[in-house]
Predict the 3D structure of the following.
Amino acid sequence: MIELGNVTKVYKMGKVEVYALRGINLSIKQGEMVSIVGASGSGKSTLLNVIGCLDRPTSGRYLFDGDDVGKLNDNKLAEMRNKKFGFVFQDYNLLSRASALSNVELPLIYSSSRKKNKQAMEALERVGLGARAKHKPTELSGGEQQRVAIARALVNSPALILADEPTGNLDSASTAEIISIFRQLNGDGITVVIVTHEKDIAAQTQRIIRLRDGEIISDETVS
């Protein structure tokens, strides 16, 4: 599904060049559940953004399902992000004045489907929040808000879920619930890539990729 070949990402700060990624070579197969770990500044979020087409690499090659991402224009990239990827972030990124159901419907705004409401409700039910569909984020716990965010990521039936520190703001009980949902989704065939600094979360994935200073220093299979 994912093939990165000698990918670099360089940010220019005045006359100084900062290498966020240095020659990344990585393959992720369809149906895997992978964690990317490393200290702050190791490049893990940058790598996730490149995989999710939120950022373009400075050099190197990225193939997704055999398509050369570097050759796609902005419209094609936007279409890929909307249809093939589901994003989950640490801060949930929910609209505070909208209901859980309306938040989940957001990726369907430009869809021609007449079943937006049904699709959104099915996504909420998939994460166990069907009964909370009319509640606003301020009426939900942190764990419930993150489940709404996961439902929003699922509403377009993506092939890949990308999660950046999805449990960073949660207590241990809510963290366990969120990881359980990711494992269930992976069991349904969805590829899941999680950026985390928590060892116990990484240990629940199938592979752990460790980054340091923009380079992969280890890639191990979890038994």
User: Anything to note?
Assistant: The chain has one domain: 2-221. The longest strand covers residues 16-28.
